[in-house]
Amino acid sequence: MKIYTVFVEPKTSGNIGFLARTMKNFGLKKLVLINPCKLENDAYYQAMHARELVQDAMIYDTLEEFIEDKKITSIVGTTGTAGGSYNIKRIPITPDELGKTMHVNGNIALLFGREGDGLNNQEIEQCDILVTIPTSDEYPIMNITHAAAIIFYEIFKNKKSYPIDDMDISSYDDKKVLTNLTNEIISKLDYPEHKEKQVKIIVKRIIGRAFIAGRESQTLRGTLKRINTRIKNKTHEE
Amino acid sequence: MKIYTVFVEPKTSGNIGFLARTMKNFGLKKLVLINPCKLENDAYYQAMHARELVQDAMIYDTLEEFIEDKKITSIVGTTGTAGGSYNIKRIPITPDELGKTMHVNGNIALLFGREGDGLNNQEIEQCDILVTIPTSDEYPIMNITHAAAIIFYEIFKNKKSYPIDDMDISSYDDKKVLTNLTNEIISKLDYPEHKEKQVKIIVKRIIGRAFIAGRESQTLRGTLKRINTRIKNKTHEE
């Protein structure tokens, strides 16, 4: 799969830089500019360590020339609020849904429209897929490069498929072991039956919620075993 | 749930504006600035239709003053790449995971660090939760407002899809009581000193991270007291 990030008629040179930086943050390399404004210094400045993406940007006069030249197989367009001025027949998907469907071969173009105006109706008509970011109704218009960051993030996220390698969150089985251990302890505390049940549920939920790491889980197991061994069982006493 | 977006020592006025705009895009309103640079015109310009967020920004000299003043119950920090310079003992979660756990009441602070340097170790130590955006290894350093957009998006996305339940989150003091109780128990387990310390740290962090509700905290207190009373103290045995 080749992904081209296409900025259609950018008006502000700095935004080209921001876009390049965000692309590189998520492993995207191919920047295409359609009829862009003049590239000033701030394009390179805002790109930071992604300035080579700006230097290597492919520039075309029209979208059609690019689509033909790079043999694009799928065009993904990004739009602002759904139900805006464009043809309502098109139902946009979310970035999340896009990320999950991007496991395809081919040459894919991700289109971002001009600042302020976005993509025009003709450009939107050419898109195979439209993506819209769910935003607050009160102020739905995002800055183009911030919108792009979210879309790149979702594509990257699904490509990597979680979790971050060195973050080994405890598994379902790990959690089960912890819950069994806490249940054993709670059973020794002579709660009335309904209360015992309630305590077990609460502790189970907290274990589920706490994002316990694999190595933390190891230590906790040891601690719970110690507690369990040490705890006096009232019935034995009497 | 009240969410405060806290920009710690911003250096560039325009970034405050970008942050405000992105906040409003995702329905966030409370902007806090800790010891910020001078707010120039570009803060208002980049905010676009969110300039009232910049106007109403709460400004504090130190993070501590803000935390105390607004009675913050949970602090969420954002950091760059996992395994970076900060203390490796802390395991960051993903924005996705953050969004899914944010169904709680309470006063939550979302911390974003200074451009370039991020949050310092002392600030990170204070966080109950750390979030890291999964990025390309080749260039993991994101612009701060683009990183913020992704985190706001994940919070908004999850808020929309699941109704926030009215769980009232336990306070800072509640958590302290729980930590004291667990510490008392752990002290009785005859761990070697360094191991005892480590176990206490792990348990404290899990309590911080788990978004324990007020009523859950009540029950847990009772359970921990029972365990503490019941536990055999080895020295007494011998």
TrEMBL record, chains A, B:
Top-level taxon of the source organism: Archaea
GO biological process: tRNA nucleoside ribose methylation
Protein family: Belongs to the class IV-like SAM-binding methyltransferase superfamily. RNA methyltransferase TrmH family.
Gene3D superfamilies (UniProt xref): 3.40.1280.10
The keyword Methyltransferase appears for this protein: yes
Domain tRNA/rRNA methyltransferase SpoU type: 3-153
Keyword S-adenosyl-L-methionine appears in the UniProt entry: yes
GO CC list: cytosol
GO MF term set: RNA binding; RNA methyltransferase activity
Species this chain originates from: Methanosphaera stadtmanae
This protein's name: RNA methyltransferase
Signal peptide: none
Keywords associated with the record: Methyltransferase, S-adenosyl-L-methionine, Transferase
Pfam families: SpoU_methylase
